[in-house]
Request: fold
Amino acid sequence: MNQQFTIKERKRKNFVLLVIVGISAFQTIDAQRVMTLEESIEFAKQSSPDIRKSTLNLLSNQKSLDAQRASLKSRFSLDITPMDFSRTRLFNDFFSTFNTNEDYNSSANFSISQPIIHTDATLTLNNRLGYRNNFSEAQDLRTKNYSNDLFLQLDQPIFTYNRRKLQLRELELNLENAQLSNAMQLLSLERNVTQSFYSFYQAQNSLEIAQDEFDNQQVSYEITNNKVEADLLAEEELYQAELNLATSRSTLQNQQVALDNAADDFKLLLGMDLEEQIQVQVDVNFITREVDINQAIQHGLDQRMELRQREIDIERSGFELIRTNGLNEFKGSVSLSMSVFGNNPNFGDIYANPQNNPRVALTFNIPLWDWGEKRARLAAGTADLDMTKIDLQQQQNDIVINIRKTYRNLQNLETQIEIAQQNVKNAELTYEINLERYQNGDLTSMDLNLFQNQLSENKNSLATSLINYKIELLNLKILSLYDFENQQPVIPTF
Reply:
């Protein structure tokens, strides 16, 4: 009687536990948000802090370039001095007496300045209109006069590099580099989200496998319990079945904890609300992809953004050499201007008697001795340029090697997946056969548990191989910038 009461009490506890687990699972699934890989990536692009910072950096470089281009257009300016009055009392040596002088000025200056990027010159058109009212106590004389000075001036540096063109090109390269960095950041985000997505899926799949194993152990336990109640098996077999069921329940709980942890990591990466319940949906059916290793390498060498960034670094190093070569350089400047000046007490007669005021200036800056500063700086800049070229060659080699490694991993994974699929089929068939043997009393519960563990391990191994294949395909896509899954090139988003 005690043994029968113990067996019934255990059955009641197991039934209650299954009901609680089932209700909890139903409530969780009902409130879950199901996400695909594509939806996860798009969600992360909108909420990722790294992507937002990269986008702001791109905006900053774009606006800097826009500002520089705007500075190369004609610049209009108007300076107005409505009133400038002064009264001074000074000693006049010629008359040996103090003299009070009052001076009132009013002026307006309008100018148009046009930079010329091709020669680094500046062309300026300027017009200065003024009015002056002056009183001198010594001569008791007040003078009123209007004047206007219209002149055109050209300032042209010679024997030196074009600073405007160099600065504009640098800003263009900065923008291109920011665009490349942003595109690379998006690809890196895609890689991280994909890896976290599949880790979450693997934890989700492991929980399903653990649930299947628990269900199988529950069936095994019920068979054992029925045989013990019918006195067809010793009670020791029931104890072993209870142990197997408890172990399976513990595994199920552990997998639930692992899934919850993976879900938190995944939501944190995507920037989601940590309290939101999510589930991932993915098709990991194995389909062999045709991968041309030569095409992958060539496309990677032609399109990889890191290589373009190294080329930009080389061009920047060349700019630094130009600037360094400009230290203590022999240079000059030419200034040409033509002015038409007129003045008259009557405003309407300002140019009644105009006067031309031409000006020509040629200046040179001739360095004499710099104690080897320029030569040393040029040598340092040349060394930096050579190092950048070495980095470019090393980057090319790394791309080729990484693509080759990924290609070999794909080939190896194809073989592993085929073997894993066959192992799962064999394990399922083996478990069904041995479950029937166990029902017929030809197998112990411990032996059946071994076949159940073998089936679970093979299922996990197959899921891992399929996920690894998907991830390696993504790695090859990022390394070569060619999507072999869809057979199309990857176009970076700028």
Notes: The chain is about 60% helix and 20% strand. The chain has a mean pLDDT of 84. Residues 74-116+121-160+332-366 form one domain. The radius of gyration is 42 Å.
